[in-house]
């Protein structure tokens, strides 16, 4: 059976975990590979800020306190709706389930905690986002001194309340089950809970359900799973490819891929697993899907599962292990996949090199920060501002949620292929005035950057329609019912020399030297007569409401890949084939 036909809707004998692939090798690691793993652990320990015991205790106390607040709120809603008091005292009232990196035990300092609150059927989503009375959780949280920076994100794919509780960021999702009482130790792995749940509840429950299965599937790898996942997260952030919103991969995607690697090489050391991780992804023939579990499809009506026929547009499907199977990486585009593939090749070469040399410093080059601000001749720069912290949070969130749509617009800009490389930098640069913001600053300005290269032979000529992003600016960002007058978006196109100084950590002179050393920015010699004019020659920094942006001449630009180790083999072996 073709791998892309695997997820046609079907029903088979139930099982909790049905592995999708068999191991490639059961060979254990050698003494040398164990030593390289010790070096890798030493490096990550120096560069991964783990919560100390006090911070971990603070997080556990937070969960206890927050549950008490929510149970009291659920009882108030029940009383207001006329439910008998004895019913309200049964069971747990409500339950909290964590997911993501916190649930997997990474416990990174400063990271947020993803929580889903599960409540009985008499509590609705309107109660969850309610801001006017004591039956609205949003209102209840505003009355707590421990809560700060509370924002409702009700129009997201998975609606949440985002806030800080004693300085710890919380993403709180909502799931209302068709139950009168939430029993103690409710098992979320029971698919029957989804039968009559609405779409929002199913999506919210997907987080802890997927995380629980990832943990079970990776359990045979022991501590190696955590070591590799921690390493991959550091690497992806430093290489600027950690972001679901921007079209790269997020926490759940990386977790599934690491679990997949551990499944294929269950007895290997963490250092070798990291190298195999890059090898698998470098060689994988997308859009063949990666999956770590074949869950039972109970065939509930109204619940769709991932299907290769209807999902033919997916470019990098990484399927969730829990029912209903979904593509967790649906936001990946052709451009962001191309960026990641270059990074996988670079990661493979440099991890292979690190395995051959002793010492933790051997891993340093693999985790070297991205050269994004050196690589391109032209960048789009987006300046997002507001006048209050809450408005800034909402407005920047709106921009980030629509950012990947810009990548798709540029990919499909006529003539097709005009943009050769499109790299949206996933992290906002937080700015105060003309400097980087500090932890003590009130930040009311985020700057975003997108680097690109173009095929000069396809550039618009005089009289043709110039490149502009007005349609995206107006339709995807500015046209928003929650936009207030103080929310502003300025769009500019800048050359490398026009980038602000604060993006260069070691200063502009050092950046220019590195750029020259790596061969970036050199102009190519062209044959024939040079074009005198071009429909894209003039740059007009666009104002807040999405004016046209004309790109400067792309002369001398080319697709410059990230620096890497040895060249990849011209004909790589086929990827591991799913069973």
Task: Write down the Rg.
Answer: 25 Å
Runs with pLDDT <50, length 5+?
A: 1-15, 525-579
Class based on secondary structure composition and strand pairing: alpha+beta
Strand/helix succession? HHHEHEHHEEEHHHHHHEHEEEEHEH
> Helical element count?
15
What's the gist of this structure?
With 579 residues, the protein is of the alpha+beta class. It is 34% helix and 12% strand. Strands 6, 7, 8, 9, 10 and 11 form a 6-stranded antiparallel β-sheet that branches. Strands 1-2-5-4-3 form a 5-stranded mixed β-sheet, with helices on both faces.
Question: What topology does this entry show?
Answer:
Layout: H1 31-47, H2 53-80, H3 85-88, E1 95-99, H4 100-103, E2 113-119, H5 125-129, H6 137-142, E3 147-153, E4 160-165, E5 168-176, H7 199-218, H8 223-238, H9 251-264, H10 270-283, H11 334-355, H12 372-375, E6 378-385, H13 389-411, E7 419-424, E8 429-432, E9 435-436, E10 445-454, H14 470-478, E11 488-495, H15 508-517
Parallel strand pairs: 2-5
Antiparallel strand pairs: 1-2, 3-4, 4-5, 6-10, 6-11, 7-10, 8-9, 8-10
Helix pairs in contact: 1-8, 7-9, 8-9, 8-10, 9-10, 10-11, 13-14
């Amino acid at each position: 059976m073709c791998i892309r036909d695997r997820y046609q809707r079907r029903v088979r004998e139930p099982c909790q975990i049905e592995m999708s692939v068999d191991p490639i090798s059961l060979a254990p690691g050698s003494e040398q590979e164990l030593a390289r793993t010790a070096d890798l652990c030493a490096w990550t320990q120096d560069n991964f800020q783990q919560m100390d015991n006090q911070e971990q205790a603070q997080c556990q106390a937070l969960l206890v306190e927050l549950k008490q607040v929510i149970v009291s709120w659920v009882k108030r809603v029940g009383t207001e709706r006329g439910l008998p008091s004895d019913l309200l005292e049964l069971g747990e009232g409500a339950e909290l389930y964590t997911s993501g990196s916190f649930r997997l035990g990474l416990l990174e300092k400063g990271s947020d905690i993803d929580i889903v609150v599960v409540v009985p059927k008499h509590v609705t989503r309107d109660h969850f986002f309610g801001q006017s009375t004591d039956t609205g959780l949003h209102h209840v949280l505003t009355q707590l001194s421990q809560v700060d920076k509370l924002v409702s994100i009700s129009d997201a794919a998975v609606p949440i309340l985002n806030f800080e509780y004693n300085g710890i960021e919380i993403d709180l999702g909502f799931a209302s089950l068709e139950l009168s009482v939430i029993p103690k130790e409710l098992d979320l792995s029971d698919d029957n809970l989804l039968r009559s749940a609405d779409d929002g509840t199913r999506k919210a429950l997907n987080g802890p359900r997927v995380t629980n299965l990832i943990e079970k599937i990776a359990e045979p790898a022991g501590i190696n799973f955590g070591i590799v996942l921690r390493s991959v997260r550091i690497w992806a952030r430093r290489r600027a490819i950690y972001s679901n919103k921007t079209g790269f991969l997020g926490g759940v995607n990386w977790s599934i891929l690491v679990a997949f690697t551990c499944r294929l090489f269950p007895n290997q050391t963490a250092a070798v697993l990291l190298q195999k991780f890059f090898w698998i992804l470098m060689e994988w023939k997308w859009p063949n899907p990666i999956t770590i579990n074949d869950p039972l499809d109970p065939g509930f009506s109204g619940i769709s599962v991932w299907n290769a026929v209807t999902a033919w547009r997916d470019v990098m499907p990484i399927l969730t292990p829990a029912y209903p199977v979904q593509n967790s990486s649906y936001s990946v585009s052709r451009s962001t996949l191309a960026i990641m593939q270059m990074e996988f090749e670079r990661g493979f070469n440099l991890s292979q090199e690190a395995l051959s040399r002793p010492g933790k410093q051997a891993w340093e080059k693999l985790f070297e920060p991205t050269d994004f601000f050196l690589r391109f001749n032209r960048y789009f720069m987006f300046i997002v501002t507001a006048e209050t912290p809450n408005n800034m949070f909402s407005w920047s969130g709106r921009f980030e949620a629509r950012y990947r749509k810009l990548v798709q617009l540029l990919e499909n800009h006529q003539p097709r292929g005009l943009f050769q490389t499109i790299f949206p930098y996933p992290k906002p640069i937080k700015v105060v005035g003309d400097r980087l913001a500090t932890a003590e600053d009130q930040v009311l300005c985020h700057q975003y950057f997108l680097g690109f290269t173009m095929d000069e032979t396809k550039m618009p000529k005089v009289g043709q329609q110039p490149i502009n992003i007005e349609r995206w600016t107006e339709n995807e960002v500015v046209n928003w019912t929650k936009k207030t007058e103080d929310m502003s978006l300025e769009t500019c196109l800048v050359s490398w020399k026009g980038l602000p100084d604060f993006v260069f950590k070691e200063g502009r002179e050092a950046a220019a030297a590195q750029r020259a050393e790596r061969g970036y920015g050199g102009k190519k010699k062209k044959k024939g007569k040079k074009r005198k004019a071009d429909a894209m020659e003039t740059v007009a920094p666009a104002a807040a409401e999405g004016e046209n942006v004309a790109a400067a001449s792309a002369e001398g630009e080319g697709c410059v890949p990230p620096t890497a180790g040895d060249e990849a083999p011209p004909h790589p072996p086929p990827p591991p084939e799913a069973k």
